[in-house]
Amino acid sequence: MIRILQLTLPILQKAVPFGLLFALIISFITRKKTIRFFLFYFYLFVLSYITIFSRTPRPIQIDLMPFSTLSVLPDNLIYYFENMALFIPLGFFLALLTKRKSREIIFIGFLVSLGIEITQVVFSLGYGQMDDLIANTLGTAIGVLCTRFVKH
Fold first, then answer.
1. At residue 63, what are phi and psi to the nearest 5 degrees?
2. CB neighbours of 66 closer than 8 A, spacing ≥ 6?
3. What is the average pLDDT across 126-135?
4. Which residues form the VanZ-like domain (predicted)?
5. Which domain holds residue 97?
6. Which of 22, 45, 48, 51 is deepest in the core (most CB within 10 A)?
């Protein structure tokens, strides 16, 4: 039981703040675009805070080896889920609020993730990792798929 708490607590604290989860639920329920846009901007604020503004400076480190985080410790699979969960709302809201094709939205998710990674490296706020790009892009794709349950 303690092991489960150790594994799940970081996910709840870092990746999906309860307010953001609540915002997604409201977005499922309501059909008003103004509320969805407000929730999308709120999500962007939370995303930028978690990935950039809450960070403290650290030495620059870049890791371009795909899945290298998994090779360090198997428990780091949770790291992937945190990153995916963080980007699910991006794919969800972009698919819901725009008329772009799924592959365009997924590419936008990749570009947003790349922008965050570059910002973290340039300002020494995190590690530039290929794993982040992979997980974040997958999260965006999952978010796009989730809109199939909302759209008619």
1. -130, 105
2. 130, 131, 134
3. 87
4. 40-150
5. 2-149
6. 51
Angle of helix 77-97 versus helix 33-48 axis, rounded to 10: 150
How many structural domains comprise the chain? Answer: 1
What is the bridge-based pairing of β-strands 61-63 and 127-129?
parallel
C-alpha pair distances (Å), 71 with each of 39, 66, 133: 36, 10, 17
| Cα-based distances in Å from 48 to 7, 41, 77, 102 | 24, 11, 23, 23
* Model confidence, pTM: 0.76
DSSP secondary structure letter of residue 46: H
Contact 83, 135 (CB under 8 A): yes
Asked whether the predicted pLDDT for residue 45 surpasses 70, the reply is yes
pLDDT for the residue numbered 24: 61
**Confidence class of residue 72 from pLDDT cuts 50, 70 and 90?**
low
* 5 compared with 126, residue with greater pLDDT: 126
